[in-house]
Design a protein that fits this description.
Chain lengths: 315, 398
């Protein structure tokens, strides 16, 4: 199942929740929408599953047989961010009801329910009402309800929220297995360390806009054009001397003997190191790759600073 | 789309089961069985606990005193003149009553204190002494027969309906009132369950996931059918409950049984009207509920009482089934499902009125069902807040 989103925009009364977003999800990929609360991830997902309509832009769906006019309930599964099941009914009742609505054969549904409950260690509790389960266990039941009909496209809005690290790994394994079976997964999350390990491609969003998208390497190239180095030296002296040096963007003191140095992308480091070493002797240096989380935070901070500057200039 | 496609029937059954609590149902059925058992077996139960009274009877003049048969809870033995003389000064403790029958066919009861059982004995003695008085008269057999039998009083009901044909009273206003109470119970049941069903789903956050599987219309249709089944179940139960109570009340009274007859056409037509009406009212309630986010904090909850107003108005005209107001209310869809069955049970209703009423009810149901689906589809777009009256109006207009 392929998804092609072009220039999608959704406005509410005073807010533009999704602002001119385009993306492509190919069959068999795990695609992640990343961003903090309010970034526009859920609004984008809701338009994709047909719960809300876009003000501008288009969503095109296709599979091996060609383009499809829209997603039909059999094609996809959706785990909403705003989720829950009937609290006064048992796990089995809830899953049975969803399976019935999905049109699953009764014996097949029963078999799949048992398998999933076994996988998530919930078999013993299948006759308990939902309200007696912890939030994490309720979340697992909800995920089972989502995947029961084994769809080609799985859309998960914040699938890791509310789960402990062990169950986050369980969910990661489920998603990896889905990918291996050729399913397409689109998920939104703010746990970037998890997504970094899982997603083939991603879109980083802030205030409804795309900050960067593509593979992790492509994102890194977009968000971290400067090179960052970890250098062992006298941190105080490095801060005092290197800050003003040509080709140095920033020097951050990590501790007394370590600094992180951001170097301008156009500078030849082979020529730079001897100059720096002359000012402050270096014991060692190594390139440093920022994680998605740090890159995202840096970018958000830079964006905020830029907008403050603009506001200041306007004032 | 059919009101009962596969998904709709699954949702309807789910909704029915969701509010069907076995424990409560069994308690209700148990209560009903106890009332019915008590009412049918009341004669035997009361016989066990009935107080028995003993006494003596003395005929001052009659030769064959054994003819008088006292009520079953009073045993009277014949007394002699010596005993009577003695008891004139003091009534013995082992006797509750001494009956003295005088030559002029009057009687005196001598008792320790006044009590209710003496009324029954007094009535019984009065009937017996009246027979003795008649027997003492010099009458022919024909005159005696005339005196023994009650005169006929014929009931001639002169009623002219809209077809100006003679009408026949097929029931009573009590039946209409009874039906009204049943329908009110059905509507109140729908009111409570529909509100709970829709707002609880919003609060439990079930809505969004299900809406990617089923359409708002299928969901609403399922709810309307499922909750209507509950309304019908509540009506059936209240009918049986009142029946049992009536049986119980009758077993305390002299009549000892309750019976009424109802025409098969009236029964079938009433069922159709009531079912369609409940579906329509529940569709209306579903639409209202869909615009409410939290029933504890919404001022809109009180508006859900509006559909109940016409039903209460029906009570005021239910005993005048041929009045102008009753005829109008039996045609308007908001009240016809109560008023038309009430009229059918009591009087002849013109065919055109039945047809028009039914047609309007069906059209209203279809329209209301569509409005409910549109309101629901609109309501779910408002995350954590309620749509304004303007939004609601737009959704109603489609």
């Amino acid at each position: 199942m392929n998804i092609q989103i072009t220039n999608l925009t959704k406005r509410y009364k005073t807010v533009t929740a999704v602002d001119n977003i385009s993306l492509t999800v190919n069959s068999g990929e795990i695609y992640a929408l990343l961003g903090p609360n309010g970034a526009g991830k859920s609004s984008l997902v809701r338009m994709l599953v047909g719960l809300t309509q876009a003000d501008e832009g288009s969503i095109e769906i296709s599979n091996s047989n060609g383009p499809r006019p829209q997603l039909s309930p059999e094609d996809f599964a959706y785990l909403p961010e705003d989720r829950g099941l009937y609290q006064d009914r048992t796990i089995l009742d809830n899953l049975g009801f969803i399976a019935e609505l999905r049109g699953l054969d009764k014996s097949l549904a029963q078999q799949r329910i048992e398998q999933w409950l076994e996988y998530f260690d919930l078999s013993e509790r299948k006759k308990e009402p939902m309200r007696q389960l912890s939030k994490g266990n309720q979340q697992k039941v909800q995920l089972i309800a989502t995947l029961l009909h084994d769809p080609d496209l799985v859309i998960l809005d914040e699938p890791f929220s509310g789960l402990d690290p062990v169950n986050q790994e369980h969910v990661m394994n489920v998603l990896t297995e889905l990918k291996q079976r050729g399913k397409t997964v689109l998920l939104s999350a703010h746990q970037m360390a998890l997504v970094e390990r899982l997603a083939d491609k991603m879109l980083l969003m802030s205030h409804g806009r795309a900050l960067a998208q593509g593979t992790l390497a492509e994102i890194r190239a977009t968000l971290q054009p400067q090179r960052v180095y970890r250098i062992e030296c006298n941190a105080q002296m490095a801060q005092a001397h290197w800050h003003q040096h040509d080709g140095i963007v920033d020097v951050t003191e990590i501790d007394n003997d370590v600094v992180h140095v951001i170097v301008d992308p156009y500078v030849d480091v082979e020529q730079l190191w001897p100059q720096l070493n002359q000012q402050v002797p270096m014991r060692s240096f190594s390139p440093l790759q920022l994680g998605l989380h740090e890159m995202y935070l840096n970018t958000i901070e830079q964006n905020n600073n830029k907008s403050k500057d603009i506001q200041h200039e306007l004032a | 789309m059919s009101l009962l496609n596969s998904k709709v029937s699954k949702i309807a059954w789910w909704e029915f089961r969701r509010f069907f609590k076995w424990k409560q149902e069994l308690i209700s059925i148990g209560l009903l069985v106890v009332i019915m058992a008590v009412s049918t077996g009341w004669g035997a139960i009361s016989a066990v606990f009935e107080e028995q009274y003993t006494g003596a009877i003395y005929f001052e003049q009659r030769a064959n005193p054994g003819e008088y048969e006292a009520p079953k809870d009073i045993t009277l033995r014949d007394a002699g003149s010596m005993e009577i003389e003695k008891w004139k000064t003091k009534l013995p403790e082992d006797l509750d009553v001494v009956v003295m029958v005088h030559p002029d066919n009057t009687a005196t009861l001598r008792v320790h204190k006044r009590d209710d059982w003496q009324d029954e004995l007094t009535d019984s003695l009065q009937s017996y002494l009246q027979q003795l008085r008649v027997a003492a008269l010099d009458l022919t057999d024909e005159q005696r027969t005339t005196l023994d039998s009650k005169p006929d009083v014929a009931l001639d009901i002169a009623q002219v309906n809209t077809d100006e044909t003679a009408a026949e009273d097929e029931g009573s206003s009590e039946l209409g009132m009874f039906l009204g109470i049943g329908i009110s119970v059905g509507v109140f049941t729908g009111f409570g369950l529909m509100m709970m069903s829709i707002t609880a789903e919003k609060q439990q956050r079930v809505t969004e996931q299900l809406l990617t599987i089923i359409s708002p219309r299928e969901w609403m249709d399922g709810k309307i059918v499922g909750i209507t089944l509950h309304s019908l179940k509540a009506m059936l139960f209240i009918g049986l409950f009142f029946g049992a109570i009536a049986l119980l009340a009758a077993s305390f009274s002299d009549e000892g049984s309750v019976s009424f007859t109802i025409d098969l056409f009236v029964l079938v037509a009433s069922f159709v009207f009531v079912m369609l009406g409940l579906l329509m009212i529940n569709a209306m309630l579903a639409g209202f509920s869909a615009t409410i986010d939290d029933p504890n904090h919404s001022s809109r909850s009180s508006f859900m009482f509006i559909p109940l107003l016409p039903i209460f108005l029906c009570f005021s005209v239910v005993d005048s089934p041929d009045g102008t107001l009753a005829q109008i209310m039996s045609i308007l869809p908001v009240s016809s499902f109560m008023m038309m069955p009430a009229r059918l049970a009591q009087t002849d209703v013109a065919w055109w009125q039945i047809g028009l009423s039914l047609a309007l009810l069906v059209v209203s149901l279809v329209w209301m069902r569509n409005v409910a689906a549109r309101l629901f589809a609109m309501g779910i777009q408002f995350y954590g807040k309620e749509p304004s009256w303007k939004d609601i109006w737009h959704a109603i207009r489609g």
